[in-house]
Amino acid sequence: MGSPASPERSAPALRELSRASADLPEADPDASRDARYANPFAPPDELEPDGEPAPRSLFGEILDWMLAPLLLLWPMSIAVTYLVAKSIANGPFDRALETDAYVLARQIAPVNGVAELRLPNATRDFLRADNVDSVFFQVLGTRGELVGGDADMPLPHDDDRPQPGIVEFRDDVLRGNDIRVAYTTVEAPTLAHPVLVQVAETLDKRSQLANDIIKGVILPQFVILPLAIVLVWFGLSRGLAPLHALQANIRARRPDDLSPLEASRAPPEIAPLVASFNDLLNRLEQNMQLQKRFIADAAHQMKTPLAGLRTQAELALRQDVSAEVQRSLEQIATSSEHAARLVTQLLALARAENRMSGQIFSRVELTDLARLAVRDWVQAALAKRMDIGYEEPPHPVEVEGNAVMLREMLSNLIDNAIRYTPPGGRITVRVRTNESDTRHVFLDVEDTGLGIPEAERTRVVERFYRILGREGDGSGLGLAIVREIVTMHGGTFDIDDHVYSEAPRQAGTLVRVGLQRVYPARDKP
After folding, report:
1. How many CB atoms sit inside 10 A of residue 61's CB?
2. Going from the N-terminus, what domains does the chain have, and what CATH number goes with each?
């Protein structure tokens, strides 16, 4: 297809149609449509415009609201556990210390107005008997003198001294060690002031018990918390499974499948969404039917008068008319032929762009289809003294597609090559396979025309675009139709140079279409 002038030349750099359409300018209305149809099964959130953040997932939102309070409350539970453990650990040891204070208080007796401590050795040994903590005691007389025990024990504030017979507790420090002190006062009629009795011990046993309690409560939480997170994750996944199933159902549909979703299987929470979606599908189906009827009516209403006009002009040319009238009639016949071709291409483009119009795909034998298409254009090529050839592999090649649209695509490529290749040129149509790529089959159309400049290759696929300075009677729709049909079939579309002479270098146009190949069940590689 050496047709340089043809707007029907397609973009070379379009290794894949999806990439090609993404490269088109944003202002081009075709670009956004092609980006959508490059992956027709992708949900809309996968095609978010650049710079616009996608909305947060429902799964992540629910997970955050469930785990955030859990993670915030966990440190609070650790703090509360620590305080409770300390309180539990202090309870039994405080009661033992209180008993020691009462025992020591009963050993005080007033003698001549002075307090004396009558502490038997057995009682002293009982007070000091502790293998873990250090135990201290102190008895101060009515004037604050030391009656017995440890002289360096810290004293309570005067305002904090309890009533006689009541034991109180405080935390203090003795010789650099934290201690727990139980203290009370003893009163007697012959004593001027109450006697202070204090019993204290270090906190080793309490700390050990508190640590054991904390370990018993906190350590299981390090297992329970991750397990809870996993269970929440699993529960959410199970709860949102119907949404994933709905997404998979929609994603797996073909673009032309407008059948309603199964609302009966949807949970009550998303049943209104499914019902609204089904209503949308129903309206789309109605619109598609209206559009198909319009295209059919338009084809009949426009092509029939044009065919009649051409026939009348050709009949008039057979009559004996003046040269001026004959030139006018020839112009009318030529113009009506071009108009009919333009109408045919516009209708083909409308069908190709309307990818949800119910096009039926089936297995198509590509070699047979290409051979018949080439045969249709032999007379047109011979009229311009062109050599048109066809090459195919030795075995049949099948693709999944619409035979009518594929033949329309190939006819546009051949027509484009004939229109823009000078008389006496050569055109080759080739169906080929590649041993290194058994999943695809390639359809090549090459010519010995002037070629398409690389800078123009991304633009010749636009509707009605024609290269400036190139003569030709094309409409600028051929390659636009080809692009739409290739996109409909999920194929690839390239334009390159066809070098047919090295010295001097001369290059025409090579258009290559790649389609997904299908195999009979017994022949799958």
Report:
1. 11
2. 1-41+359-525 (3.30.565.10), 56-252 (no CATH), 271-358 (1.10.287)
